[in-house]
Recover the amino acids of this structure.
């Protein structure tokens, strides 16, 4: 078959496992025109051998029989090479076998039935491109061995953030990172450091909210021998330890007010004095601060110095909360699943479709940190092949606004109660007027008030 599709320059490898030479296969020429380098093998064992020697992000398997032995071999291949996005090419008859359909549903990116029409080829090429993109988003990070809290995302808001990080890293001014808890503020600070000219120097992180108030000055600025009881030797503070590199001040909004003036002086003069000392020590450090506190409000309430805020807030980065990262939840769920799956049972394959849907709807108040914790728990607790909502402890969340599912009767009662409360307030406790607004008699109104034990005060 020849399909009229424009040629492209990009060459991407795809593995084609053709298990039966007597059956019509796909047109390799048609797929090759769209930039795919097809490596064809004729058995599953040969597929394993070639995958071990070359990396593939996409694989095609032509399976036109569903004998139990062969099905088990295919399942083992798909399970052992989960980083590959697999697409099944099969026959209509095979789809009558429940075990085969279950295998496709749980382990494959998509499937197509032979023979392929021109429209089918257009869809297949689109599927291959999408599968390649999805696999590539996580593949590089997994191969480089990033830690469990690496930033992953392809949503517009994250792409914008990545661009901002690159711009901010190219200069040496202070940075203030605003974001909710669990959005990865320290990761952003590290990314700025690693992409800056200070990457080969220290990155020192200090949690301003975790250090006791009586110790924070010595922790940041260090102390001289004899500065206080127990100071038996000189100690450099965290600012000096970060010399030449980056000092990350997390939870800067929790820094005690009387310590803020010392930090301000350092930012202005680039010098420090150790506790108990008189010598000014020049220190070249880039400061990156982070907070989930509204510092403008803190300034108005007298809890944070306005001049310090101006010094810190030269450049600003704002990581989006997970609920605003469209399409990233499933991507990150798969990334962290692959990261921690070895903690669970060997037969664990991934997430059920219901789990994926629930994760998309859930608002994630704890952001990425909560996502990681729920997935790690689910991997350990799951008894089946697929992680279900109850493994994630999200079984009650299946509505668009993330509220627990309730019965219709409960919903009616809640709406009735809220309507009465609203009407009473609107009518300033005038029961006659409230009854008219609600369209009920005064007797009915008092009955509802009594039913829900509403206060008229």
């Amino acid at each position: 078959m020849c399909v009229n599709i424009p040629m492209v320059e990009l060459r991407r490898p795809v593995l084609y496992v053709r298990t039966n030479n007597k059956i019509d296969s796909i047109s390799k020429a048609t797929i090759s025109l769209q930039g795919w380098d097809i490596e064809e093998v004729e058995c599953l064992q040969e597929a394993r051998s070639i995958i071990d020697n070359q990396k593939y992000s996409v694989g095609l398997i032509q399976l036109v029989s569903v004998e139990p032995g062969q099905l088990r071999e295919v399942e083992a291949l798909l399970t052992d090479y989960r980083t590959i996005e697999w697409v099944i090419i099969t026959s209509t008859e095979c789809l009558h076998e429940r075990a085969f359909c279950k295998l496709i549903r749980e382990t494959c990116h998509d499937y197509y039935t032979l023979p392929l029409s021109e429209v089918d080829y257009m869809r297949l090429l689109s599927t291959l491109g999408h599968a390649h993109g999805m696999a590539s988003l996580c593949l590089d990070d997994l191969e480089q061995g990033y830690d469990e809290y690496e930033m992953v995302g392809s949503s517009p808001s994250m792409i914008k953030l990545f661009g901002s990080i690159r711009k901010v890293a190219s200069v040496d001014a202070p940075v203030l990172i605003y974001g909710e808890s669990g959005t990865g503020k320290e990761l952003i600070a590290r990314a700025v450091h690693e992409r800056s000219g200070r990457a080969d120097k220290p990155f020192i992180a200090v949690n301003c909210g975790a250090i006791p108030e009586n110790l924070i000055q010595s922790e940041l600025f260090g102390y001289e021998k004899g500065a206080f009881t127990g100071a038996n030797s000189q100690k450099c503070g965290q600012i000096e330890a970060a010399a030449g590199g980056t000092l990350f001040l997390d939870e800067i909004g929790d820094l005690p007010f009387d310590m803020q003036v010392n930090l301000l002086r350092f930012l202005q003069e680039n010098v420090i004095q150790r506790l108990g000392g008189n010598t000014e020590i020049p220190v070249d450090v880039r400061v990156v601060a982070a907070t989930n506190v509204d510092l403008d409000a803190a300034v108005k309430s007298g809890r944070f110095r306005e001049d310090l805020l101006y010094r810190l807030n030269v450049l600003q980065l704002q990581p989006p909360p997970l609920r605003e990262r469209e399409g990233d939840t499933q991507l990150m769920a798969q990334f962290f699943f692959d990261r921690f799956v070895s903690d669970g049972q060997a037969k664990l394959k991934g997430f059920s479709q219901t789990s994926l849907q629930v994760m998309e709807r859930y608002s994630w108040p704890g952001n990425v940190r909560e996502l990681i914790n729920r997935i790690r728990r689910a991997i350990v607790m799951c008894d089946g092949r697929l992680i279900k909502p109850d493994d994630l402890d999200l079984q009650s969340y299946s509505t668009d606004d993330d509220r627990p599912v309730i019965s219709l009767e409960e919903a009616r009662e809640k709406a009735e109660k809220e309507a009465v409360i609203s009407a009473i307030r609107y009518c300033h406790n005038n029961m006659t007027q409230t009854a008219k607004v609600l369209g009920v008699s005064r007797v009915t109104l008092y009955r509802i008030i009594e039913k829900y034990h509403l206060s008229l005060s």
